[in-house]
Amino acid sequence: MWDDPSVDWDAFDLVVVRGTWDYVDRRDAFLAWARSVPRLRNAPGVLAWNTDKRYLAELAGLGLPVIPTTFVAPGEALRLPEAPELVVKPTVSAGARDTRRHAAESPDEVAAHVAYLHAAGRTAMVQPYLRGVDTAGETAVLYLGGRYSHAIRKAPLLAPGAPPPSGLFAPEEIEPREPSAAERETADRVLAAVTELLAGEPELLYARIDLLPGPDGAPQVIEVELTEPSLFLDQAPEAPQRLAEAIAAVVA
After folding, report:
1. Contact 164/97 with Cβ under 8 angstroms?
2. CA 3, CA 140: separation in Å to the nearest integer?
3. CA pair distance 118, 208, nearest whole angstrom
4. Is this structure's pTM higher than 0.90?
5. Pick from 183, 188, 173: which is nearest to 232 by CA?
6. What is the maximum alpha-carbon separation in the chain?
7. Which of 20, 81, 125, 235 has the fewest CB atoms nearer than 10 Å to its CB?
């Protein structure tokens, strides 16, 4: 575990961040640990940027097709975007924890969800629910060592009225997917923009760009996963070798 005090992290040629989904409730401690590890990938500055989803506002400001997102910090007034259904979640979250789909005609439920997050000192984010995911699912485009590796389809997670997942992450239905040309182009643009934003940091060892079909069918960015993403290596036969080669290139 990342917080095991008995581990001598300095003894390793490289430490690769993988199973750290429990950082959500201890983000400050996690980032302090990351800064203490001499050779960490992805790097501490990347983790600091990526573990708060307010980075989506930066990407939207660059003209990238990010799902329209309203951020509501504790003490700020809630203004609901116009959409038949909404998704509410905290800006610091993983595995769909504390994420829920709401009907816009039930604003009290939305407000209660936001109030629940605010009571814990968390910033909420509100997005329109993109109904195209119900049939097309979500596309995750994965990059290893800065190069495209593979992609998967993730079945929709948020059933109407369903409670948020109670564990570290929600169960997922995954299968390989060949991304469309539009999805590849969008993911490539996003990765290039993120690389530019994080230009002062070491090269990304891995990245995952999560996309949903927008109202017009064009892909929109739901998240950029640079911290602890499932890489779905079992969905692409050559992906484990590509990851190994990317790690070896960093160590060399």
Report:
1. yes
2. 29
3. 29
4. yes
5. 173
6. 57
7. 81
